[in-house]
Specification:
The structure holds 2 protein chains of 2 kinds.
Chain A (H helix, E strand, L loop, with lengths): L2 H25 L4 H28 L21 H32 L3 H35 L2
Chain B lengths: L35 E2 L11 E6 L8 E7 L2 E7 L12 H5 L13 E4 L2 E4 L2 H19 L4 E5 L5 H15 L4 E3 L1 H4 L1 H11 L10 H4 L2 E5 L3 H4 L1 H12 L5 E5 L5 H4 L3 E3 L6 H14 L5 H7 E2 L1 H8 L4 H8 L3 H13 L3 E5 L1 H4 L4 H14 L9 E4 L6 H7 L14 H11 L15 H10 L4 E5 L3 H4 L3 H8 L5 E6 L11 E4 L8 E4 L4 E5 L12 H12 L15 H12 L11 H4 L4 E2 L41 H7 L5 E2 L18 E6 L15 H6 L5 E3 L1 H6 L7 E5 L4 E8 L6 E5 L12 H4 L40 E8 L10
Parallel strand pairs in B: 7-8, 7-15, 9-10, 9-13, 10-11, 12-21, 13-14, 15-16, 16-17, 22-26, 23-25
Antiparallel strand pairs in B: 1-4, 2-3, 3-4, 5-6, 5-17, 18-19, 19-20, 22-27, 24-25, 24-27
The chains are: A mainly alpha, B alpha/beta.
Bound molecules: iron/sulfur cluster (SF4).
Chain lengths: 152, 806
Amino acid sequence: MHLATYLGLLETGCSTLATSYRQVADGHRDEPDVATLCLRFAAECDQQKARMSPFVRTYGTHPDGEPERLHADGLAEARTGGLGLLRDLHDLYLLATNLDISWTMVGQAAKGDRNTDLDATVTRSAATTEAQLKWLTTRMKAAAPQALLVAD
Amino acid sequence: MTEIDRATPDPDRIEDIWGARTPYGAGEVWPGRVDTFLPDGTTAADVDRWVPSACLLCSNGCGLDIAVRDGAMVGVRGRAEDRVNHGRLGPKGLFGWQGQLRDRLTEPLIRRNGRLQPASWEEAMTLITDRSRQLLEEKGPLSHGFYTSGQLMLEEYYTLAVIGKAGLGTPHMDGNTRLCTATAAAALKETFGADGQPGSYTDLDSCDAVFHFGHNVAETQTVLWARMLDRLAGPNPPAHVTVDPRRTAVARASTVHLPVRPGTNLALVNGLLREVISRGWIDHDYLDAHTVGFDELARTVEAYTPQHVADLCDVTVRDLQAAAEIFGTHERVVSTVLQGFYQAHQATAASVAVNNLHLVRGMLGRPGAGILQMNGQPTAQNNRECGADGDLPGFRNWNNPQHVQQLADLWDVDDSVIPHWAEPTHAMQIFRYVEQGSIGFLWVAGTNPAVSMPDLARIRRILAQDSVFLVVTDAYRTETTEFADVVLPAALWGEKTGTYTNVDRTVHLSEQAVAPPGQARSDLDIWVEYARRMGFRNRSGQPLPTWDTAEGAFDGWRDCSRGRPCDYSAMTYDQLRGRGIQWPCNDEHPDGTERIYTDHQFHTFDDDCETYGHDLATGAAVTPVEHRAVRYDGRARLKAAAWTPPPENPDGSYPLHLNTGRTVYQFHTRTKTGRAPELAAAAPDAWVELAPEDAAEHHIADGDLVRVESVRGHVEVPARCTGTKPGSVFLPFHYGTLDPSPSNGADAKDDVAEDSADPSTSERPHAANELTMTAWDPVSKQPTFKSGAVRITRVDQSPTRTREED
Ligand code: SF4
């Protein structure tokens, strides 16, 4: 049974993304919309992780048995400037996408296991991650031309 | 031009702001009452001509005539037949025009050796176009930004929109409407698919309840409040409900006053919605036929029980339930919404929630049932319609290729020139790009960001940067012109011809009554000159824009608006002479349209909507595919969001909520009203309103000088201990570092400012925006001026007692 492995992946994914959101919020305080929303998203990631803990208790997480490459690294540190912001949002997007597809796979397993509680929890969390991805897309689309064409 | 002595106001709209009552009952016509002001002993017999116009000092847009004698403005008179005001004028309308008669800029200024010095138009325009061309070559159109105004005219906005979108191709274009009316537009777009006010002022003549959501109408739109007072004084007066942390005149006249805790508006309206739903006061047939999203809405508001909302918002369960009952059980309810919601936390979500209240009861599209998402000025609406706020003109959708193509065809340009890859750049982001150096050319017109934007220390730093070439068009020296590389002198109201549209879609034509002072020119003339010198052309080689007169611009706009919600196609200058017409005005409705959405068919069809909408919590854009999948097809979008705590809350160091707003006697940053003797005398200086409890705790009495401080800056202003909510303070936002008042001797002796003389400054900081923070609503991008935390300390026990307003 490898579901446990994926639950571990979700837990780490939530933590990594939360930390990265906080780093971006801190590093881009001069972009108040980014800073405010990233802090809120970080709190959402914490909640997502907390909601997973009963299932982790049931299925376990098998941290030792997980292949290394499953985990995406978080942001090392926030960058600066217009292009730096774009690159940081891009990194957040990749981390959130990783989490997003993980929700999908665990959701599938939940259905297969007829675990309606897990399925409902995952569905709810997936919606939150999806909303974050949509915001990241909107913000990056607005920022890209200026960052790529005009910024120093 | 001559200096005007302080005249005894006649009629006295300073002490008696709303004038004598003319009571009327439900369904009757509001009786007329003509207010006239001719100072200096001028009588009607002395007047050569009365030129029809409308006041533009608040979103009412009251119809008036400008009195002209010997080529000068000498007074105003309300137009009895005007549908907006039936002859009345308030303090600003009566007295404000006098501010145009002194201290005007009469020639261009350019910065030489660090100082602004007089120059010719040729020199000034050459400097501007040289820099503009150079930057376009080096960095392209995204190096250019335009931050304009809500105080220009339709023709000027549309001309700038064409220059910006079809000539230059920059998305960095916004107006100070972002600071005041952006949330009104956003809320209407989210719910109904397009901007456009559902209601009409005549709804107030027949309604049986009025809700004021963060709207101090008694001060912001005095003539509208006079209309409401007249209903209150007549038979079957409507119930009033007010949501406002201050005990305003409106709150005092209300059946229920909900003194909401700052930052919790959305929780409050969610609570009202829950109560209306759970008590069964909803119209299921209407919801089924005309809306999408009720189940999700009901789920979202379910958590907002009366007790929970009472705790969050610091109101009583009884008052909340009483307000909900008034909304739920009256047959004709009008809601008005303004800055208490628009400039606050979760602005769009809370304003959309008001739309939801009306939709769950089917409370719109018929007499007496309406929503007024208010504006600041009657000219702000035109900024939104014409696209000088960055939107595509005619309520077109940037994300809809067909809409972009329509404009490309109309302007005869390639569609790729028109910026439409993302939403337009909002004002705060434009300033951020200037701060980062990627916008190197900023044109500010008709607005004074060095007083009106949040966190002024930061704004001053940005405007002072060497990396930006700053052009400022204005009628006076202001706090902002002092940072400019080039200052262009602008003509004002009455000195140029143009149209504007008030909050209930009434369009007025204001024709030139007098000549502008000196070499001042209209913003339209200035921008056309810029475009001609830059050589902007369409594909057929014609100059862009193709017009160079106001009427030419208006005709261009009629074409552009044809078939869109704000349809002006059948409106002409001829028809507008002497009367206001409500859009849409087209072949089907040649006399205009009193009320829209009478068929309850909204602008939510995929190919029609101005926006596909946003996530109210984050501002993430809904994609065309997602929108299509829902199949709104003309049904209103019921959108809901949960309340979240505001980003900056009072704490031990800064224990009080900050609230900022207007006073009845001043307009914006006082450039005009501060120079009108009666208005300047009535509100000469800023002040801070404190709750008596908070004042007592700090040993502060009326008139004491108080230091109000946030992490960003401080002001020192006299105290007024009044009925604001304990735990919050209120500051008027009009006051900057320059003192334009007629009692300020440095300037008053000249009718025209000495260009080389720097304007005098006041000693104490008293601009409310020294304290406010850089933050904005995720959907409307309107700055949240009414938020943040401050502390107060008494500086001086002053003998000065400020005059009480009410
Ligand atoms: S109510 Fe508004 S539009 Fe009317 S006179 Fe007063 S300021 Fe002008």
